[in-house]
Amino acid sequence: MSAFLTLLKRDILLATREGGALGTALGFYLIVIALMPLGLGPDLNLLARIAAGVLWIALLLAALLSLPRIFEADHDDGSLEVMAMGPLPLEAVAAAKSLAHWITTGIPLALLAPVLGILLNLDLATYPILIATMLAGTPAISFLGAIGAALTLRTRRGGLLLALLVLPLYIPTLIFGISAISAATMGPSGYDAALLILGAISLASVVLGPLAAAAALRVQLQ
Amino acid sequence: MQTITQKLANPTRFMELSGKLLPWLAAAAALTLGYAMYLAFFVAPPDYQQGETVKIMFIHVPAAWLAMMGYSIIALSSFGLLVFRHPLADVSAKAAAPIGAAFTLLALITGSLWGKPMWGTYWVWDARLTSVLILFFLYLGLMALRSSLEDEATAAKLTAVLALVGVVILPIIKFSVDWWNTLHQPASVLKMGGSTIHPDLLRPLLISAIGFTILFLVLHLKGMRNEILRRRVKALTMAEVERAARGHVPAAAE
User: Fold this and answer.
1) Distance, CA of A146 to CA of A198 (rounded, Å)
2) Is position B187 within any domain?
3) Minimal Cα distance from B137: which residue of A?
4) Does residue B83 lie in a domain region?
5) Cα gap B68→B74, rounded to integer Å
6) Considering only alpha carbons, which residue of chain A is nearest residue B136?
7) Domains in chain B, number
């Protein structure tokens, strides 16, 4: 367990001290949201209606950009091979790295979303629900994304391929995130169910993601 | 006592057996599909509500079922590759992907052609349609991942991992019409308490489904044979190049 925590701490430290990666994801998130009113026209009623969906989609894209970072640097300098030979099972390595990605990317993006909601005239009552769905849904993004990152570790044109592999896996998260928000704005009924399913998807990906990512890493490290 | 899968692990034996089997299966597929089309166009009565458009079902339903069977074959083959290291498992997974993708696309297209007169729109974002669309994306992802990797052994294993992750979609597609309130009708062919389709329409549907399934098997076997031959050609070429490099082949040197 201490090896797991050490690795987690190391990855978080690397991500925060390095700075650039997180800043890029947040900046990308900001610019995509800023493009929306320019493309759709500044009609505040229209923007308020689609705000939650736009925030979710832009969050998926911003997180997608940061996925290669999970394994890439460690694979390039060889430390991933050291970790594979170390006492920690590769599944736990993948889990620690995915968790670090969630903490350094998923949570900041989820917390930035309501701020960007101001730009889209998001209804004030929706803010807590938006944050709740994003915090419940973003673990799935990191842990499923780790599978894609591990699969495309050594491919040419990996970025586009990663999008093609991972975005279909994100669709359930997106659907239930949005349906929780729309259920909450219509009335209290249905909100709990969608949020619970969202949590279930995240928990399932916390189990599935590291297993599949470790299997892919073993092939990559052969 | 060897099981059949163990016997078929030898590609030469597989080529022999599949070569004998293939003409018969192809003939069976042609006959069954021909008979199904005859029933569909000349015998089956129009539906009392849907009219003649009900006949789209004779292609749509088998295609949708084969879209899922194709992915099941890929998933089973991937499991066979990763767990038992069966030498033909990857060949089977690779051959099944484009065929499954084609049937998925066929199901989506015929479904939307049927949807225009019946639902008044080519496409709705209901659970069944969305989940089948995700299945189509998964097929594309499998093929894209495989084509992006140079080394075939690595490509085989990584694609197998992705295929097993994607298998979650199959129960979602199957039960989407029960879990959510969808525009797409729930299962009506196979269900407890008998089918809700009139026998006059059910019979051509089942015959068509059998025909399309045999067609899938024919295409799959043919694809596997082509893949095996392609790998042999590649291995022979590599051997040839190696020998030429050592200068032992005067005839091929020029």
Assistant:
1) 18
2) no
3) A168
4) yes
5) 10
6) A168
7) 1
Instruction: Name, in order, each residue with C-beta under 8 angstroms of B174's C-beta and a sequence gap of 6 or more.
Output: B68
Among A179, A180, A170, residue whose Cα is nearest residue A202:
A170
Q: How many CB pairs under 8 A join A and B?
A: 57
Token pair, residue B166, equals 């994607």
At A92-135, the pLDDT tens digits run: 999 999 999 999 999 999 999 989 988 888 888 888 889 999 99
Of B61, B75, B70, the C-alpha closest to B106 is B61
A-chain CB neighbours of B166 within 8 Å are 168-169
Per the confidence metrics, is the pTM higher than 0.90?
no
Q: The tokens of A152 are what?
A: 């495309």
Q: Which domain holds residue B30?
A: 4-179+195-246
Residue type at A22 in one-letter notation: L
ipTM for the complex shown: 0.84
B50 lies in a domain?
yes
Residues of B at the A interface (Cβ-Cβ below 8 Å)? 82, 130, 134, 137-138, 140-141, 144-145, 148-149, 154, 157-158, 161-162, 164-166, 168, 172
Task: State the nearest Cα–Cα gap between A155 and chain B, in angstroms.
Answer: 6
| Rounded Cα gap, residues B93 and B220, in angstroms | 9
Q: Which pLDDT does position B249 carry in this prediction?
A: 54
Instruction: Write the pLDDT tens digit of every residue in A55-65.
Output: 999 999 999 98
Which residue on chain B is closest to A212 by alpha carbon?
B161
**Which pair of tokens denotes residue A121?**
């005239």
**Is A169 an interface residue toward B (CB < 8 Å)?**
yes
Chain A interface mutation, best of B82, B132, B137, B161, highest count of A Cβ atoms under 10 Å: B161
Q: Which residue of B has its CA nearest to A220?
A: B154
